[in-house]
Amino acid sequence: MPQTDIGSSDRLLAELRSWVEHETPTTDAKAINGLLDRCQADLAGAGAAIERLPGRDGFGDTLIARTPGEGAPVMVAGHVDTVWDHGTLARSMPWRVEGERAHGPGIYDMKAGSFFAFHSVREILRQGTRTRRPITLLLTPDEEVGSPTSRAPIEAAARGACAVLIPEPAGGSQGACVTGRKGTGGFTLTVEGRSAHAGGNWSEGRSAVVALSRIILQIHAMTDLGRGVTTNVAPVWGGTRPNVIPPEAGCRIDFRAPSLAEAERVVAAIRALAGEEDGIRVTIEGGLNRPPLEESPANLGLYEAARAIAARQGYDLPKQHRGGGSDGNFTAAMGIPTLDGLGCSGAGAHAPEEHIRWAELAPRCATLCELLETLG
After folding, report:
1. Does residue 81 have an active-site annotation?
2. Cα separation of 364 and 358, whole Å?
3. CATH class of the region 9-181+293-374
4. Domain boundaries of the chain, sorted by first residue
5. Is 143 a catalytic residue?
6. Catalytic one among 61, 123, 142, 143?
7. 172 pLDDT exceeds 90?
8. By the number of CB atoms within 10 A of the CB, which of 19, 66, 120, 274 ranks highest?
9. CATH T-level topology, domain 183-290
10. pLDDT digit string (tens) for 288-314?
11. What pTM was estimated for this model as a whole?
């Protein structure tokens, strides 16, 4: 059991509701900063040292809170942005509790987990709990679009840390934590052809859409489920009118790979599609965004510590690998022991049925809190 009293699931749910009902789409810096303002006030009032990094490129701020202490800190990081637009609560996903499930936009991915991190640090400070190491807490604004502005602060904080904890949602029916994630990347591919009348001068044209179609099939063929590699093309665009040979076309490409070697192989294969031939020019921009979170002995050591704490809380904590990336990919690739998926159990990330199993709020938050108290 943690030394810190983190409260009951009912208490946690009541405060978590205020986070969910404060809608924070990634695209609204003001909304995100409004939630961070509340977090900053509570953490500063409890005695945390606060660093607030101003947002840029249209994104919100990054909030960093540090507890007193000496030595390499334990770092915990969560994002407060969601994929849901303003008005989702009113239109289609109202806050509601139905039996063991609490519903609302972003509650599972990942407001419950980020709230765990915030609440644990706040209560550790309020209650004067002695921790083995100082704690560094990051609350970030842009994970859902690849962490373009928060990656650098995350990596900077991780360089001095002894361990990194990521309270992304627990996965599957058993609420597993995550010891491995695929690397993720993306490209924008554009094709330039030559326009012509689709009837009178067909042979003078060079269809960018036809060229793109052939390339899409090549990209699709790079998927190798046996090796854990997937590719996906969407959205796709091209052409202007039915009677004009299309001079332009393009697409976005997503890929996932389980290891850095596989990721580099896929990146090279996709980039090799660029070039110019027979009046068609193919341009490709992009690459690997999140390196793989590869399972390591250090990560497994963190997992075993978490699993033992969970057992004392009365639940089993299995582990799993996932195809989606998180900010833990960045820190694991740096060689910092990283354990992911320490948020609440539930389902429906990015989907209308998004929910958590709210009775598990207290035991799972207690597991994260005890890790923060004892790691090091």
Report:
1. yes
2. 10
3. alpha beta
4. 9-181+293-374, 183-290
5. yes
6. 143
7. no
8. 120
9. Alpha-Beta Plaits (3.30.70)
10. 999 999 999 999 999 999 999 999 999
11. 0.93
